[in-house]
Design goal:
This protein has helices at 4-10, 26-36, 45-50, 57-68, 74-90, 103-106, 112-130, 146-156, 181-189, 205-216, 231-240, 248-254, 260-268, 280-283, 287-298, 302-314, 320-334, and strands at residues 13-15, 93-100, 133-141, 163-169, 193-198, 220-223, 243-246, 273-275. By secondary structure, the chain is of the alpha/beta class. Strands 1-2-3-4-5-6-7-8 form an eight-stranded parallel beta sheet, with helices on both faces. Helix 5 packs parallel to helix 7 and helix 16 runs antiparallel to helix 17. The protein is globular, with a radius of gyration of 19 Å. 47% of the residues are buried. The protein binds hypoxanthine and zinc ion (ZN). Hypoxanthine binds at residues 19, 22, 57, 64, 169-170, 197, 199, 250, 278-279.
Length: 335
């Protein structure tokens, strides 16, 4: 196929950096607000979209947490997740790892079990009806106390088999990885895989990346493009085949650009970088739009687009059979 856009649209895809609460489209938000009697500070879908005025991580997070207040019951979490799964499947996503923020809900009085049971039911239906394989990653909110993260970790243990790993998100300022060292050590002991956000252009981003690698012992890093400030760390993640899950359109909203050039440098250096959507309802770009953004900015060819997908599946926590199936499909595109 000569047409690179058509090629990107038709590729089998894998998504590793996706906050399920960040897939809450205004239409569903209004429906759930009405169903649950939750007041919203805007009256129409257009007003809601027009109100998205994000210029950095903190300003984005205000809208993100305000939006998730409409999620109350198990069916709400089911509908949220299933709506995303339908969109993802329509874009050719065959495997996705989904972040969820339990403390964004338990802090409002919603029970942990309500959240995971709704998400789990949507995952099982997506597998059956859409052929989409997904796994859950539970994120701790780094602007809360470490003790609350530890309590959340303990609360998750009855659902241990439903959750593949743990992550760390929310406002990074003043909340370094080391704050959660004990929580992540316990998570590892419980058998969870570990990832953490190192958001782009934060205070001491490179120091946080170093802590993730050397003090926490993460299995992957979310964002992490500032690693380019230390070539020794770039070399380390390349050698250890640790993935960086990069989110170009999200970067355009919360930093000074997509960071596509930095992604290109990491790709050329042989680092396992992948392209992901982060919070697609807010940044109005799902995974295909993110891939096309990077393809256009860097004028990438088919081989490089395939490498990005191969990087994603190789740095994923997919079961071996799924991994093999997607790698085989990508190899067939190459021939
Ligand atoms: N960074 C930090 N917190 C978040 C993000 C992100 O990319 N998305 C949702 N919560
Ligand atoms: Zn994120």
């Amino acid at each position: 196929m000569a047409d690179i856009e058509g090629f990107v649209r038709s590729m089998p895809k894998c998504e590793l950096h996706l906050h399920i609460e960040g897939t809450l489209e205004p239409e569903l938000k209004f429906r759930l607000a009405e169903r649950n009697g939750v007041a919203l500070p805007y009256r129409t879908v257009d007003e809601a979209r027009a109100g998205y005025d994000f210029h950095d991580l903190s300003s984005f997070l205000v809208g993100y947490y305000q939006g998730m207040s409409v999620l109350v019951t198990e069916p709400d979490f089911y509908e949220l997740a299933y709506a995303y799964f339908e969109k993802a499947a329509a874009q050719g996503v065959e495997y996705a790892e989904i972040f969820f923020d339990p403390q964004g809900h338990t802090s409002r009085g919603v029970e942990f079990g309500t959240v995971v049971r709704g998400l789990r039911r949507a995952q099982l239906d997506a597998r059956r009806m859409l052929g989409l394989h997904t796994q859950l990653i539970m994120c701790f909110l780094r602007d809360f106390q470490a003790e609350y993260a530890m309590a959340t970790l303990l609360e998750s243990l009855p659902y241990r088999d439903w959750i593949i790993g743990v992550g760390l998100d929310s406002d990074e300022r003043g909340n370094p990885p080391a704050k959660f060292a004990a929580v992540f050590a316990r998570a590892r002991a419980e058998g969870y895989l570990l990832t953490m956000h190192c958001d782009v252009d934060q205070e001491n981003s490179i120091g946080h990346i170093r802590q993730c690698l050397h003090e926490i012992g993460v299995d992957r890093i979310d964002h992490g493009v500032n690693i380019l400030e230390d070539p020794a760390l770039v070399d380390e993640v390349r050698r250890r085949r640790l993935g960086l899950t990069i989110c170009p359109v999200s970067n355009r909203f919360v930093t000074d650009g997509t960071k596509a050039a930095e992604l290109g440098r990491l790709l050329d250096a042989g680092v396992l970088v992948s392209v992901n959507s982060d919070d697609p309802a807010y940044f109005t770009a799902y995974v295909t739009e993110n891939l096309l953004t990077v393809q256009r900015e860097l004028n990438l060819g088919r081989d490089q687009m395939i490498t990005l997908q191969r990087n994603a599946i190789e740095s994923s926590w997919a079961p071996p059979a799924i991994r093999r199936q997607i790698l085989d499909k990508l190899a067939a595109l190459n021939s």
